[in-house]
Amino acid sequence: MTTAAKKFTSESPASEARTPEHRFDVEKARRDFPILQQTIRGKPLVYLDNAATSQKPQVVIDTLTRYYERGNANIHRGVHYLSENATKEHEAARRTVQGFLNAASETEIIFVRGTTEAINLVAQTYGRTQVGPGDEVLITGMEHHSNIVPWQILCGEKQARLRVAPFSDNGELLLDEFANLLGPRTKLVAVTHVSNALGTIIPLKLLIEKAHRLNIPVLVDGAQAVPHMKVDVQSLDCDFYAFSGHKLYATTGIGVLYGKSALLDRMPPYQGGGDMISSVTFEKTLYNKLPYKFEAGTPDIAGAIALGAAIQYLTGLGIENVAAHEHELLAYATEAVSAIPGVHLIGTAKDRAAVLSFVMEGIHPHDIGTILDQEGIAIRTGHHCAQPLMERFGVPATARASFGMYNTHGEVRALVKGLHRVQEVFA
Ligand SMILES: Cc1ncc(COP(=O)(O)O)c(C=O)c1O
Questions:
Q1: What is d(CA 136, CA 214) in angstroms, rounded to the nearest whole number?
Q2: Using one digit for the tens of pLDDT, what is the confidence trace for 126-153?
Q3: Which stretches does DSSP call E strand in 135-291?
């Protein structure tokens, strides 16, 4: 995934001239996404805000519609046809996620609302029982707020200490410094797989090996990784892995926590309620087996089934094909955007995925976003829920273009043209 520099020209890159069978057919993929077919402010929509949320392919929209038109029922315990069918589809989606992550068992896949809930679940169950006064939780300086605040809350409650591994000026984690922060008091490492603000890909395998040498479990925030690369939780040997469906071409409200069953078994439940029990009396409640112990209440049934459809869609295209396309696009965009005078990239790590963060001299990122919007181009501006990272770079905000499978080289050229327009307005 190295973003090797390529000479940027306004011409189409060589990749676009390749024979179709040797490249991902982006135009075909685009036709699967109805939202992309529209104009915004009279211009074709250029959607470059995929790190915030991805658009949905027709198959996901159809899965939801079909479910609510013909399949809706509550799952588990129902003896009627619709309930049995909904249960089957829900559990089939769990097996799809299991295959997608290569988890050892479907009982290690817990459906949650998203990455944020998955991390809070681990903080409130594993964290509450394993972290005590004087203990430490180690994160990195490039975490999203959802992988900072749950640990801060936990450490505050437990008189424990939140430690933060630093990164270099180009946005690469300093592995030696990370290793130096591991110690006998470290009870958990919680680290992003891909930074949402920089695009940096963390060398997870190395990091996990270092933590495991000291028997420290590792939670991975995979929100920005799963749409862009093959993730194999057994090969990584991570202990927990969290992601959100809505960044993976599925809907909002559904996400996944993977956990090794040996750990999940020992953890107390997260929330109490229906479904997470095997029996209840006023004196004593026995909890359900995995994964249901962690799934209290009626879940997002349709969302889980649609997540299964999104994963099948993505794997049908070949995640390695999608990754290669996005990788090439990022290299092209990096070259093109950094060539604009007065533009500075924030985050230039060797290994990056799908994210291009930048600032422009004398122009606030919000103004960049507003002017691009007039051109039908959607990017995100702000602190990207990573305020400590912004502070580290000495900027209040950045402009961030983030790519998905359906973005094209032509859209990168539209972005570059839009940025020139921004400079004209502020000249
Ligand atoms: C790296 C990272 N972690 C966590 C999250 C939180 O995801 P969600 O809001 O879907 O729970 C995000 C969302 O932007 C993210 O980029």
A1: 13
A2: 999 999 999 999 999 999 999 999 999 9
A3: 136-140, 161-165, 186-192, 218-221, 240-244, 255-259, 277-280, 285-287
Radius of gyration from C-alpha coordinates of the chain: 22
pLDDT at 118 over 90: yes
Closest atom of ligand 1 relative to the 195 alpha carbon: 1
Instruction: Choose one of 385, 387, 400, 403 to mutate for the ligand 1 pocket test, by most ligand atoms within 8 angstroms of C-beta.
Output: 385
**Catalytic residue flag (residue 385):** yes
Residue 225, token pair as written in the block: 């990784």
**Distance from Cα 117 to the centre of ligand 1, integer Å:** 10
User: Which residues are bridge partners to 357 per DSSP?
Assistant: 400
Tell me: the pLDDT tens digits for 48-87? 999 999 999 999 999 999 999 999 999 998 899 999 999 9
Spacing, Cα 312 to ligand 1 middle (Å): 22
The pair phi, psi for residue 116, each rounded to 5°, is: -60, -45
DSSP label at 134?
A: T
